[in-house]
Structure formats: C-alpha cells, structure tokens
Amino acid sequence: MNTFIQVLVNGILQSGTYMITTLGLALAVGVVGILNLAHGEFLMVGAFLSIIFYTVFGIDPLISILIVSLLILLLGIGTYKISLKKVLDSAEVNQLLLTFGISIILQNIAVLYSGSKEVMVINPPYRDLSWNIEGIGISFSKTLVFIIALILVITLFYILNNTKVGKSMRAVEQNRYGAYIVGINADRIFKIAFGVSVGLAGLAGVMLSIILYATPFIGFNYTLKAFAIIMMAGMGNLRGILWSSLILGIIESALGTYVPGGTGWSEGIFFFIILIILLVKPEGIFKK
Amino acid sequence: MKKFLQIILTIIVVSMFVSCGKGNKIVMGALIPLSGPGAAVGIGTKEGMDLAVEEINASGGIYGKKIEIIYEDDGNNPKQAIAKVEKLLGKDEVKYLIGGMASGVTIGIADTVKNYKPIMAWIGAASRFAEEKYADADWFFHYHPWEYYNIQSTADFFASTGAKTIAILFEDSAFGSGGSALAIPMFEAKGFKIVVKESFKSGSPNFTPLLTKVKAANPDILYVICYAADVIPLMNAVKELDVNPKLIYPVPPAWPAEFASMPISEYVAQLNFWTPDFPYEETKKFNEKFQKKYGKMPVSYWQPLGYVNIISLAEAIKAVEAELQKEAGKKYSDEEYKQKVIQALANQNLDTPFGKLTFKPSQKIKYQGFTNWLTTQFRKGKLEIVFPTEYKTADLVYPAPKWKDRQN
Q1: Which residues are paired to B77 by β-bridges?
Q2: What was the ipTM of the complex prediction?
Q3: Which residue of A196, A227, A276, B126 shows the fewest CB atoms closer than 10 Å?
Q4: Does domain A2-280 have CATH number 1.10.3470?
Q5: Where does the pLDDT of residue B21 fall: very low under 50, low under 70, confident under 90, or very high at 90 and above?
Q6: In chain B, whose CA is at the least distance from the CA of A143?
Q7: pLDDT tens sequence across B358-375
Q8: Which class in CATH covers the domain with range B148-272+373-405?
Q9: CB of B177 within 8 Å of any CB in chain A?
Q10: Residues of B in contact with A215 (CB under 8 A)
Q11: Are A26 and A260 in contact (CB under 8 A)?
C-alpha cells in the first residue's frame, strides 16, 4: 500500500514540474498562436541566471525568481521586437525556423559560459529537504514547484478570462484582424503575450535550478514535453494543462515503478497518448 | 612580365618561410568534442593540453621546436569526426593524432585513420568494441582504461565489502547499456544477486519511480551507471524517498563540481580514475599549475589526462630528438622517425598525476597505458581512497548511516 501511495505522490509532484514548464508555451502557442521552439532555451537561460545570482551575488533563487522572470520577460520582448514580429504574418514554418535558430544561439552562448563544467548546480539550504510521513517521502522543493505551478495556472486562467489584456489575447488569437477592427493593438498584445510566455519559462528555469541543475541542453526535452501536454490539453486550455500534467505524471510514475523497464516505456507512452489524441480527438481531451 | 616575376618571387619567399616554420615546430592534431553534449569534457581536455603546451614551449620547446596543436571539434558525432580527422591527417598532414573522448567516435574514425597510420596517442574510448577496432594497429597508444578494467575493479571492491545483493540502474545509451551488459555477468560470477536492473534516459529529471522500486528491493549496494547531470537528481531522490542501501555507488565519467560540497554526497562511493587528492607528487604539481593558469581546481580527470597526453608524447619525441642532437648531421626518414617515436612511447616510464605511465598489451591492443582504478568515498567534501588497500587514505564507511541517523 505504501508503495502505491508513494507512486501517487511521486506522480503528483512530477506533474508540478510539467505544469510549470508548460505554462509559458501554452500561453504562446495555445492562446496567441506563436510557435516558439526556443521555449526550453529561455527556460535554460532562467536556470543559468538563477545560478549566477546565487553563486555571484548570493541571492537565493526564491528571491531572485522575480528579477530573473522580469529579465527573461524583457529578453522575450526584445526578441519579439527584433525578430519574431517580422515573421508573424508569414507562413508558420518561418516562426519555427526563427525560434529554432534562437534556441541554437542561446544554447551556444550557454556552452561558452559553462566551459568545462558539464553541469551547473546550486545548493540552497532547502534543496534536499524532505518529509517522511509514515514511510512516504515528500520533497519540499518539488512540493514548492507544484504549489507555485498551481497558483500560476489559476492566476493566468483568471487574467485570460477576467482582464482586458487577457480577453484581448484571446481575441487576437481568434481573429487578429477582427481584433484590430474593434480597436485592439494586436502588435502590443503579441509583444506582451510573448514576453510573459518566456518570462514564465524563465520562472520555470529558476525552479528547475532548485530541484535539478542547469546545462546548455536541458531545455529541449521540456519543449518537447510541453508541446505534448498542450496537445493533450487542447490549444489554449489552461485547465487542461493541469489535468494533462497530472495524468502524465502519474502514468510515468506508475510505469517506472511497476513495469520492468517501465522508465524507458514511460517516455514512449507519453508520446503514444499524444498520437492517439491527435488521431481521435485533435482538439484535446479536456473541455475549455 | 616584371610584375609576374615579383609575384612568383614573393610566393617562393613566403613558402620558404612557411616550410622553415613547419620544421621549427611539432604539430599535433587534437580531435575532441568542443560543442554539443560532450563539450564540457572536450573543453576540460583542451585546458589540460593547453597547460602542457604552454609549459613545454615556455621552457624552450623540444630542442627549440615549439609544439602547436590544431584543435578540431568532433561534436561527439562520428560523422563529423570522420570529416575532421580527414582534414587533420590529409590536408594538415599532422603526424600525431591526439585527444579522443567518445567510444562511438573512436570506432567511427578507425577506417579513415588506418589509411594514414599516424601515431595515435588516444586518451578517449573505454568500449571493448573500440579496442577491437584497433587490435592490429601498432601505432595506437591508448591511455584511458578499457571498460573491463573498471568493472573488474568494481567487482573486486564489492566483494571486499561482504555485500550480497546489488541494484543496477543504467542510462540507456551505449555507455550505460554496454557497461551494464559487461557488469551483470561479472557481478553474478562473483556471487552477487542482482535484485533490480533498470535503464533510464540520462538527463531524466525524475528518478523517483525507479528508486521506489529499489527501495522495495532493499539491496546492499545501489550501482548506477550514469552521466554527471544525473548524479544530483538521483541523490536528491534517494534522500527524499529515504532509500537506504548499505552503499551507493554511481559511476559517471565526470562529477558535478559542486557535488562534493553537498551533504547528500557524504558516504557516496565511486570508482575513480583520478582525484586531485591523489598521493603523488606529480598530482600536487599539476593541481598547482592548473590553479595558477585557470584560477580554479580541475573538475574531472579529463583535464590531467589532456595534460598527460601532450607531456607523454612530447617526452617520446624529445627522446628521438636527443638521439639526433648527439650526432650532428644525422637524419631519419619520416618512417624511421615515426618508428623511433613509437619505440620511445612503448618504452615510456613516466611519472604523471595518475601515477606511473607505461604501455603494456591489453586484451586486444599492443599499447595500453593506465589500467588502475581506485574506489573513493566522499567524506566531508573530500574524496578518500578506500580501495585497494595499498592506496588507502581512509577506511570505508560500510554500511553508510541511514538518512534519518545523519545530522544533515
């Protein structure tokens, strides 16, 4: 019984990591329709900045999280103004190529910075804190990631449905020119949405620096998984992100524990589910 | 016509200078990963090589000849490596091919290298399949131990602890799968029972499912074939789930520099090719020189290995040059010179940061350098040698205290 409860706890906590790393991309892809293949690399930059703030200035990640998110948000706005804005009206493949190029540039800057260090790690005092309740291990930092992810999902959901800027984002995604006609500055909305999207990636990067580490190549896997979760949730469905992350986290945990060789399978199952959803219910399995 | 003659004359003069330059330097071609996932190892190796070159050239080179290295980035990719090695041996005409890291690259370039037969002083590759590829190459000098040396050493150490059961987790690329395929029969032959054997994808952020399984099996030893990036998430999850094997034994090729200072590292044991705490005079000298040049301590064995690569080859060349210096006017043909350098390397007995370097036959090749592995254990941020007994700097703590009994 203990093992079963541990499997559930592992899956739920893992879903927090998936939620927090997907949320930014869900905003860019699902809400305003920007295909950002560099999402994972903005996340990686966030993790690197968190480590730099901690090692150089001694600022704890839980304090630097706001500064880093803001810096990455500004980086996102800069990236939008310099490059992305120019390809928004052309074929979507141009967005993919451009953001893929940006991801390569960011990766190589990180390689230059990290030099001979294969992994960058920080060790804040709460990093390996954990509770043991009746034989069930619960990590403090992963719990923190889960709670922050949950707060962010709820906040973003509220903003998109109840504020002017949120409604404008949804309007721009539904019909850019229609939105323009009713007085919405689409360019400004895209700029804000992309900035916030990569700012959220930066925030996720800070949290990853606490529970994992940073390497120049850490982002790519998160971009892939984030796309998969968004497909499962349905485009623009933030509540769906929550449920998809939970389901995938628990499936991954159960497979890894109960099935021989299951960890290898869990990655395959992850993308198999996405394939089935794309074939059977391409709009996603959760209601908006 | 006058202008044409001027151009021809300029070309002749320039080429004379270039050829004079070539004669006055010893050019080596280094093939290492400087980009992509292996970049950290490649950059570390380069730091060691640059330190050696600077040291040799600052002391006047080898009888006045400066050493120059042409670095080529193999990107940890065999296809890219073949093109780069063709450039080094064909276009740049280097006579000494040095460096190396991944077994896959070493296997991939074998056919190309065999066309040129340079002196290959190779510090990378541990796979027995790479060894097979160079079995007939009497110009191939291999510094890094082959994988069977490390598995044998690990099995001997495990047997010395009195452990009975082992859980094996291995990353699913050639490194981890190949290592586990070799390790499992060797461990079983020593009488160990393998209670868990599971693969994982390196860089996987989530070790909790696997460790939940390990906890249920309650092994004496948790043996993990992984990369540096896996070590800290693995150990965080071990502590989080309160998994308490008597010994945790990860074997990454390099460790995250920060790991030693983290409380989770305490009592973790591992197979080690090198540590900055090795009790050799050359280790201390290397640490000092490295610290002086780079303002930091070496973080993996690749830095001293890159250094030894150059020093060892330079010593062999120096021995041949010394013979030429003895008799004025004496000359060797290119082939004679190459054979003399091979002979000097084969007879080498060099003090290095790893201990004595000599070349002896391994299972398949003629010239194998290092074969020794030590087991070390993290103790208060320092690596203590705990096995074999002749090198011991501290007693092994076995079984390691349970997490709940530790202060941190």
Answers
A1: none
A2: 0.81
A3: A276
A4: yes
A5: very low
A6: B240
A7: 999 999 999 999 998 889
A8: alpha beta
A9: no
A10: 203, 229
A11: no
